[in-house]
Amino acid sequence: MTGNNETNNETINESISLAVAERVNKFRKEHKLSLDELSKRSEISKGMLVQIEKGRANPSIGILCKLANALGVSVADIVAISDGPNVKINKPNDIPTLWQGEHGGTARLLAGTKGSVMVELWRWHMLPNETFASDPHTKGTIELIHVEKGCLTIIIDNEVINLNENCSLTATMDVRHAYENRSNAPVNFTMTVYERASH
């Protein structure tokens, strides 16, 4: 998942910010990357990386995706929900909210795999007039979306698709795309993302 803004007005909570700080620093050192090198590889400013590693920034979903791709890990690795044995149960308090819309909508990362092949399961709740815009994912990234309630408008490379309740969509998302609730009622949808790190 990639967002346009470097920080969330929609914020990650403090415990997640600290986990992100620790993990990014750990993975960067494991890859023997300087902040300058990681900045170039991830296309994130060095200043932002410094703030992230100090736990002083609330990086957007887009920034987390760029970091994961640059470091060859998954977003779940960075937000610390993928550690443990082969079977990992995420209890309600373990599931991070990584996006908050301006009217109170949320996107929660329910589960994710470890490593450079990233498979993520998301649960979205979007209120009327909320929008989430995304930069292109890495080449070949696939998203599977199922609308549980309401009507979700999806814009994929300027094509507008209205996905109604109980309908599903499979799309390659290596182009600019966005999710919008243009209706007067809440929209709930689940999303699975399959992406391979490019590094």
3D architecture notes:
It comes from Aliidiomarina shirensis. Pfam families: Cupin_2, HTH_3. This is XRE family transcriptional regulator. Keywords: DNA-binding, Transcription, Transcription regulation. One of its GO terms (cellular component) is cytosol. This protein is of the alpha+beta class and 199 residues long. It has two domains: 14-78, 434 Repressor (Amino-terminal Domain), CATH 1.10.260.40; 92-196, Jelly Rolls (Sandwich). 24% of the residues lie in helices and 31% in strands. It is built from five helices and ten strands. The chain has helices at residues 14-30, 35-42, 46-53, 61-71, 75-78; strands at residues 97-100, 106-112, 117-126, 131-134, 142-149, 152-156, 159-163, 168-172, 177-180, 187-196. Strands 1-2-3-10-5-8 form a six-stranded antiparallel beta sheet. Strands 4-9-6-7 form a four-stranded antiparallel beta sheet, with no helix packed on it. A hairpin with a 2-residue loop joins strand 6 (152-156) and strand 7. The radius of gyration is 16 Å and the shape is globular. The two termini are 17 Å apart.
Overview in brief:
This protein is an alpha+beta fold.
Provide the fold topology.
Layout: H1 14-30, H2 35-42, H3 46-53, H4 61-71, H5 75-78, E1 97-100, E2 106-112, E3 117-126, E4 131-134, E5 142-149, E6 152-156, E7 159-163, E8 168-172, E9 177-180, E10 187-196
Keywords: DNA-binding, Transcription, Transcription regulation
Organism: Aliidiomarina shirensis
InterPro entries: Cro/C1-type_HTH (IPR001387), Cupin_2 (IPR013096), Lambda_DNA-bd_dom_sf (IPR010982), RmlC-like_jellyroll (IPR014710), RmlC_Cupin_sf (IPR011051), TransReg_Diox_bact_type (IPR050807)
